[in-house]
């Protein structure tokens, strides 16, 4: 049916009609807030490349988690930042490591909140890579045991979900086995199954202090040109025991989110990464865009593509808009 018999504008005539026919909804329940934990007390180090975000000591992690919960945000994902680094990333799986302390801080402040932890070694290795380095190469298989030890240590500290972001082959199966052997069968795995070697990670590297000392991460993170490979990676992680599949970054890979949503029956997460956040903040500061409107449009686009869960530095700002 064509104009004048068909008039799509009839369904746009008022806010009430528009809300009734809206196809995609964004809820605070879709949001996860990333937090960066650092040693000390009373620490809140602003992250220059991530305006409004900061590295926080555990006492301030408590306060931020409680504030997020009061806004309706159901979950946080924790990253650890430490100056004590070594080739085997021993601080990653140390019983009283910074992430382990932050887990306990959040659980103490908000027992009901879902605590997710990033499981990787790059913040804790002196070379900044996500795996063990042998003769200048990332040793995939030697890395798996350390990743599993890290995940188990997080579960022991109280994490209800672990999120391996390293992109080593076989790590989901190794982590699942390690968790199950220690009795943590209820701890879920949200796998960074489809993580691209992206230009949008720059601000995160300032926040986490994990820039590689040599080379880059292209031997383990994915080529941005590939989409069929994304399906293979995700399918492997599903078979190995992942409970949720994640795509990172989000905006440049909305097509990948949609493909996963169409082809898999697991929940799909997407990470609205630091560079995506920083671009909107920078343009808004210049007065070139309406920052709040761009934020909400961006998050809605990720939901529309098919993501059930969105990890985003905008979580608290978006929650305030959604509640407002």
From TrEMBL:
Summarize where Zn(2+) binds, as residue positions: 120, 122, 130
Give the GO molecular function terms: porphobilinogen synthase activity; zinc ion binding
Q: Where is the active site?
A: 195 (schiff-base intermediate with substrate), 248 (schiff-base intermediate with substrate)
Entry keywords, A to Z: Heme biosynthesis, Lyase, Magnesium, Metal-binding, Porphyrin biosynthesis, Zinc
CDD domains xref list: ALAD_PBGS
Q: What reaction(s) does this enzyme catalyze?
A: 2 5-aminolevulinate = porphobilinogen + 2 H2O + H(+)
Q: What is its EC number?
A: 4.2.1.24
Q: Which SMART domains match?
A: ALAD
Binding of 5-aminolevulinate 2 occurs at 274, 313
- Spell out the PANTHER family in the cross-references: DELTA-AMINOLEVULINIC ACID DEHYDRATASE
Which family, according to the similarity comment? Belongs to the ALAD family.
Q: What is this protein called?
A: Delta-aminolevulinic acid dehydratase
Which gene name does the record give?
hemB
